[in-house]
Design a protein that fits this description.
Elements: H1 18-23, E1 37-43, H2 49-60, E2 67-74, H3 80-87, H4 94-103, E3 110-116, E4 121-127, H5 130-134, E5 141-146, H6 154-157, H7 160-168, E6 170-178, H8 183-191, E7 194-199, E8 213-217, E9 239-243, H9 247-258, E10 262-266, E11 282-284, H10 294-313, E12 320-321, E13 325-327, E14 349-350, H11 353-363, H12 366-370, E15 378-380, E16 384-386, H13 388-396, E17 401-404, E18 411-417, E19 420-427, E20 433-437, E21 439-442, E22 461-471, E23 483-484, E24 488-494, E25 500-505, E26 509-510, H14 519-532, H15 534-544, E27 553-561, E28 568-571, E29 580-584, H16 590-606, H17 614-619
Helix pairs in contact: 3-4, 9-13, 9-16, 10-16, 14-15
The structure holds flavin-adenine dinucleotide.
Length: 629
Amino acid sequence: MLLQATFRPPLDFFLTPVRPVFLQGCGLPAAWAGQSQWRVLETGFGLGLNFLATWLAWKNDPQRPRLLHFVSTEACPVSAADLFSKAADHPDLLPLAVQLCAQWHGLLPGLHRLAFERSQVLLTICIGDAKALLKEQSFEADTVFLSDVNSPDQARIFDPHLLKAIARCCRRGSRLAGSTATRGLTDGLTQSGFKIRQTLDLEAQPDADPAHLQAVFNPPWEPKKAAEPYQPKPRSPARCIVIGAGLAGAACAASLARRGWQVTVLDTNTGAASGASALPVGLLAPHMSPDDSLLSRMSRHGLRATWQVAKSQLLAGVDWQASGVLQRRFDASGGLPMHWPEAGEHWSRWAGFEELHALETATGSVAQSALNPETPALWHAAGGWIKPKRLVEALLATPGIRARYSVNVAGLTYTSRASQDGCWQVLDADQNCIAEAELVVLAAGFESAGLTNTGANLPLQAIRGQVAWGPVTDASVMPPFPVNGHGSFVPAFPGDDENKHWLMGATFQRGNNSTSVNAADQTAIYGRLQQLLPRTAEALKTSFDAGQTPQIQAWAGVRCVSPDRLPLVGPLNDAAQPGLYACTALGSRGLSFAVLCGELLAAWLHAEPLPIEKRLARSLLASRHHFTE
Ligand SMILES: Cc1cc2nc3c(=O)[nH]c(=O)nc-3n(C[C@H](O)[C@H](O)[C@H](O)COP(=O)(O)OP(=O)(O)OC[C@H]3O[C@@H](n4cnc5c(N)ncnc54)[C@H](O)[C@@H]3O)c2cc1C
């Protein structure tokens, strides 16, 4: 999908006084006082002033909702420089604009979730045709800003289908404000179920209340929502048990605690990140495919979500590094899509002289094969390395989470209760109740399979993997950034002993859930390194020889995958087992997927704006293997 050539307005087009027209026009901030969440829908993000002003109003309001969602459509996003230069006229908005600009990149067509204020202010920016993109959402807006009504592209703005798409995202009582009230627009809004409250023209009445257009969604008919059988019943925060303190469990716990849930995380091990998430260091890199597959798009959404947490809560250079990743290609698979737009280069592009030269300097002739015109290397500019344990610890530190370790969950039972949500009991091997809650999230990796309480196991497969890692003794043979393509090599990350280490991974053994390490895998890992980085392999040869260097370590863990290799996220069967959710099957990309999946699970649970397109979200539903439409 490529951006269509679209009208791009001049910068001075976005001059409407945003606070009186939009915020006050919708009764904000008073309207959101004491609410748990508030959802704003805007058409026409423009230079982002409405978003920044709403964010500032939220920040300054002691009565603010716990979570502010701002969903905005934009046909053609301006540059970060333009965002910044416009905000410079508003000193109070400037510090927020700086934060917005720092995340304003890689905006390919589709949805993007940007998170601020420790993920309490969530901007979902929808790039492309507003009508089509609003169909990819299923939430109810409390407030609507019609920001682009001054656009010369009036036919698009007054398109009755767009107004209907906006109405579909409203609840009875949703308030709308716009800067212009022409006859065509007010007629269209009326036909879509809005009652026009006020239409004043400032030029004609300069002293009048500057709210040009105000309306409220209150149709004389009962608004119909498209039947969505997979849409779980929205829930209010109560008690939640998350089983598993790895990446998946920690991410879900953090997303739920931020929304007011009292979360208890249970894990059979003695501490957090003891399963697959105990990997010493992992790679974050976008997945690339010529058809920009679902997995590729998911990987970019996930990367954005993980980096947001890393950059706001972890230590750069110690816990993570956005170093970029070079992907060597040994065959023609995994190239860039044919018409890869400029915005895509934020994520990945063909490797250029700079990266190949840097690699060649460190690793000799390797760059020659990376330069192979048949299978050129890729440079994942948005890639890097991160320590899973640090990410898990940061997520579990979210207020509202309590973790209990050395607790082995053997089963679940459900008790329904009149006039309130039923209750789940978590049982040990002797059928004793360990804990109880209205919501349970299965995030126990491969072990989630047998915890569903239905007799039918989740369709999960175990894939064992081993990595080798050791101290950097000769920095001159280390590549300047991680390299993947045949296994993956992280060259120099700080270990717990503060020395630099390298890590080479990983083996794949399907249907194997053993975590013991073995010598055959070390040999296989060395074979991969020889192909990926021959000179580095040569330098590490003696280290790999068994018994020669005890400082080379091995670690093995178990990945868990679903039949279609995509995560399982959401309710298992909300009708029969209300309040039983899963977040697992993160496969080999738990670092990219976990934070995003936590947010997706919370969005399903609260009928919030989705962080990704509905089509993608449905492809990940935990119930999809039983689900038929
Ligand atoms: C060799 C290898 C290399 C990898 N490299 C990368 C990489 O470079 N990049 C990347 O993104 N991903 C990588 N991964 C994948 C990543 O590690 C996983 O996707 C991720 O850790 C999965 O997280 P999880 O929370 O689903 O599972 P886990 O981390 O396994 O967590 C599950 C938790 O559930 C607990 N548990 C299980 N059963 C019970 C029970 N009955 N009661 C209570 N608690 C229970 C376990 O103790 C465990 O702590 C790699 C994985 C392996 C094995």
